[in-house]
Specification:
By secondary structure, this protein is mostly helical. Helix 3 runs antiparallel to helix 4. Helix content is 94%, strand content 0%. It has a domain of 64 residues.
Length: 168
């Protein structure tokens, strides 16, 4: 003891510091270390679950890929069979039936093209009419605000003549 006091060490102070350190260590263990460990453990479980889910997804994707390949092979086989059957049946048809079918198909195509062209022309004409109405309305609104009545009438007449030339 005498040696400790000669060195200037107070044993009561050291004892108090050891107790204080123990208390701080206990508080840190209880309120910081355990929650951090619990959080890390929870995160580890979550990552393990994600990894296992990813592996399951990969296996399922491989199974789906195999099923897709099998289905494609089946479809190719069926298509080849159908093509063979169709080509055999087509070989047995008469040449006259083929020519008649070609003529009918051409008539149907020509009729469809004519109908499409007529519909296109009608839509273009309708669009031009609508655009003309909008332009006339917009022009009238602008003219009302910026020109006198005499100027408005002259400009409206000129615009109507120009628009009627474009619509035709």
């Amino acid at each position: 003891m005498e040696l400790i006091s000669k060195l200037g060490i107070d044993w009561k102070l050291i004892l108090a510091q050891i107790v204080n350190f123990g208390i701080v260590l206990f508080i840190l263990y209880k309120f910081a270390y355990k929650p951090v460990l619990a959080m890390l453990d929870k995160r580890r479980h979550m990552i393990e679950k994600s990894v296992s889910d990813a592996k399951k997804s990969e296996e399922l994707l491989k199974e789906i890929e195999i099923m897709k390949d099998r289905s494609l092979m089946f479809v190719k086989e069926k298509t080849a069979e159908m093509m063979d059957t169709a080509s055999r049946e087509a070989a047995h048809m008469k040449q006259g039936m083929l020519a008649e079918t070609t003529i009918e198909a051409k008539k149907i195509m020509d009729k469809a093209k004519a109908e499409i062209e007529a519909q296109k022309n009608a839509m273009v004409k309708e669009a031009k009419t609508e655009i003309t109405k909008i332009v006339v309305f917009a022009t009238a609104k602008i003219l009302e605000k910026e020109f006198s009545e005499k100027d408005q009438e002259r400009l409206m007449d000129d615009a109507a003549k120009e628009i009627s030339k474009v619509v035709k």
